[in-house]
Amino acid sequence: MKLASDAFAVTKFRAWLRQGESATLEFKRSTGEVKEGLQTLCAFLNGSGGTVLFCIQPDGTIEGQLVSGKPRSRLQRYRTTAAGMKILSVEAKL
């Protein structure tokens, strides 16, 4: 996904990492935690909203992950059924 302003996206991403997990921000280590991430999103939707970031350790360290094959198509399927879900790919030194 290409955002209108990559600089804005990186700035927002850095802010999330500095902020750390909260009542509206959750980090998941890998896309293997998609089910848990979707459960968290449901909880956010029942509350005041929130964001789930994958491939980030609980302390905010970027884990990173190359996703291809079945996991990638599964994520694409989730994306097409989840309103407002965005997939952000950051390939930059933070």
Key descriptive features of the protein:
two-stranded parallel ribbon, mainly alpha, globular, 94 residues
Total number of β-strand segments? Answer: 2
Can you write the helix and strand succession as a string? HEHEH
Count of structural domains: 1
Low-confidence region ranges: none
Q: Give me the secondary-structure category.
A: mainly alpha
Basic shape: globular
User: Termini, distance in Å?
Assistant: 19 Å
List the helices and strands and how they pair.
Blueprint: H1 6-19, E1 25-28, H2 34-46, E2 51-54, H3 69-81
Parallel strand pairs: 1-2
Outline the structure in words.
By secondary structure, the protein is mainly alpha-helical. The protein has one domain. A two-stranded parallel ribbon has the order 1-2. Strand 1, helix 2 and strand 2 form a beta-alpha-beta unit. The longest helix has 14 residues. It is globular, with a radius of gyration of 13 Å.
